[in-house]
Automatic annotation (TrEMBL):
Keyword Lyase recorded: no
Keywords: Oxidoreductase
PANTHER family xref list: HEME OXYGENASE HI_0854-RELATED (PTHR35176)
GO molecular function: coenzyme F420 binding; oxidoreductase activity, acting on the CH-CH group of donors
Protein name, entry field: Pyridoxamine 5'-phosphate oxidase
Entry keyword Magnesium: no
GO cellular component, one term: cytosol
Domain Pyridoxamine 5'-phosphate oxidase N-terminal: 14-114
InterPro entries: F420H2_bilvrd_red/Heme_oxyg, MSMEG_5819/OxyR, Pyridox_Oxase_N, Split_barrel_FMN-bd
Organism superkingdom: Bacteria
Length: 140
């Protein structure tokens, strides 16, 4: 199997279904001075590479893009409340490495040509798979 084929199979089907129905997540990056930044952002799962891609209108000018270029360690969380009565939370946390990619064709014409590409190393999910109780974490 190629690296792309291997990385494309890191998420369970329940996690992919959940991520496919969500639009926003929070990206945590680390600046060169060690300051942590957490930014709400849209995202796109790329099945060809198995990565989470973060686009924006001027992504190359953002602190998160500069932080990824300098450090490359990230955590990305997508979560929501499925119900408040009873209280039911669900989500996926992705920890791994990221690269600041320039001159990449965006999925929409209003987005810039820069993208943050996250390669998962650890995935933690909860509440996204009815057959799974509690949190499930695994290294990938």
């Amino acid at each position: 199997m190629t690296t792309a084929e291997t990385s494309a199979h890191v998420f369970t089907q329940a996690e992919l279904d959940y991520l496919g129905g969500q639009r926003l997540g929070r990206l945590a990056t680390v600046a060169p001075d060690g300051t942590v930044q957490n930014s709400p952002t849209g995202f796109h799962y790329d099945p060809a590479t198995g990565t989470i891609d973060i686009y924006g209108r001027a992504m190359g000018a953002t602190r998160k893009f500069r932080n990824v270029r300098a450090n490359g360690r990230v955590a990305f969380v997508v979560d929501d409340l499925a119900s408040t009565d009873p209280w039911v939370v669900r989500g996926v946390e992705i920890r791994g490495t990221a690269e600041a990619v320039e001159d990449h064709e965006p999925p929409s014409p209003y987005l810039s040509r820069e993208v943050i590409r996250i390669r998962p190393e650890r995935i933690i999910s909860w509440g996204v798979d009815p057959a799974q109780r509690g949190m499930r974490g695994r290294d990938v």
